[in-house]
Amino acid sequence: MSPESTSFAGRSALITGVTGQDGSYLAELLLDKGYTVHGLVRRSSSFNTERIDHIYQGPQEPGRTLVLHHADLADGVALVNLLREIRPDEVYNLGAQSHVRVSFDAPLYTGDVTGLGSLRLLEAIRASGVATRIYQASSSEMFGAAPPPQNERTPFHPRSPYGCAKVFSYWSTVNYREAYGLFACNGILFNHESPRRGETFVTRKITRAVARIRAGLQDRLYLGNLDAVRDWGYAPEYVEAMWRMLQQDDPDDYVVATGQAVSVREFLDAAFEAGGLDQSRYVRYDPKYERPSEVDALIGDASKAREQLGWRPTVGWRELAALMVRADIEALDAELAGARVRVDR
Ligand code: NDP
Ligand code: GDR
């Protein structure tokens, strides 16, 4: 039976970072497959569950299949206790301080959460004795200055505290596989985006600005280096690859990417065009958005994922830019209509 046609009712998974872009899509995917999904949520002074509000089930709901738990990747004891309590079949470690530019401003914090946090989780699995499989959200940022195309055999040369922390997590994951026989996989994912992408990553910053400029709410967009080249895919397709890795007979590491090289400038032009605007009228340079050391070009070779996982991306970067612009325009229209209703009352 193929993995697609199997029911996974009775299976359970823990997702760290469930409130993030990928966590929200992965939770949807696993719920659709019949899993009970446990999400690790960190304490915040305001609501931080917007991306999963549409699938939220209250604690009083009978037979609920999405259960949220307060914990933090900085708290190793909480992780052990959580694993002992829920005994998940699969763990997806997506939690991280994931912003590369911010990692230069908060390098130790990033090292603690994005690097040591993964080790805490691996050690919590070992200490709790729970038989589970773990997916580690590794990143193309680990390749950094290594020339493209990059694949599983490309040596790492990270260019930011974030990249260094991810390299630490990558090797910790490999080490727990080799030392303790843990079913542990690294997904080395290249950039992937969606309407749920955080507003300060460059694609979403651009598509959100298109919507706001059209609505007359913004007249300038300040950006940094437009020459950087990335390999941008569509996030819902990438979480499918994560799940497939944990369904294999043996644990392994996989690059997940489209193989398409696109500069920030090209994405910018396409997004403004999709919104019917000329970017040169609105976009300005601000060195504030440059990084102390930049990653010039990341272009992935995902042949191994294609051959072994049967995984193939279908959404190209132009389509991605257009769908993100459309989603931001619709979201803003709905927000403005809501505001008008409130004023009319
Ligand atoms: P997001 O930034 O959208 O989400 C990060 C998640 O981590 C959020 O749920 C956040 O919680 C949570 N988090 C942050 N700090 C902690 C902490 N101390 N303890 C527990 N949870 C914490 O990232 P993405 O969804 O885009 O990415 C998911 C993972 O994949 C990350 O590890 C990222 O580094 C990695 N990755 C992402 C790629 C991409 O292109 N998107 C590519 C390659 C790797 P909160 O909502 O409260 O902030
Ligand atoms: P990245 O994504 O650093 O690749 O990390 P980001 O969208 O932040 O930057 C991509 C490229 O755009 C350039 N850039 C700008 N970036 C931002 N954020 N804001 C700007 O104003 C701006 N102007 C130009 C950057 O210099 C860079 O070259 C993402 C994150 O999701 C990581 O967690 C993940 O691991 C990697 O992708 C793969």
What does this structure look like?
By secondary structure, the chain is an alpha/beta fold. The protein has a domain at 8-197 and 231-261 and 297-316: NAD(P)-binding Rossmann-like Domain (Rossmann fold, 3-Layer(aba) Sandwich). Helix content is 41%, strand content 15%. The chain has 10 helices and 13 strands. The chain has helices at residues 21-33, 76-86, 100-105, 107-128, 161-180, 202-214, 235-246, 264-274, 303-309, 317-344; strands spanning 12-16, 36-41, 66-70, 90-93, 133-139, 183-189, 192-193, 221-223, 229-230, 233-234, 253-256, 262-263, 283-285. A 7-stranded parallel β-sheet has the order 3-2-1-4-5-6-11, sandwiched between helices. Strands 7-10 form a two-stranded parallel sheet. Helix 5 (161-180) links the parallel strand 5 (133-139) and strand 6 (183-189). Helix 6 (202-214) runs parallel beside helix 8, helix 6 (202-214) crosses helix 10 and helix 8 packs across helix 10. The protein is globular. The termini are far apart. It binds NADPH dihydro-nicotinamide-adenine-dinucleotide phosphate and guanosine-5'-diphosphate-rhamnose. The site of guanosine-5'-diphosphate-rhamnose has 21 residues, from helix 3 and helix 6.
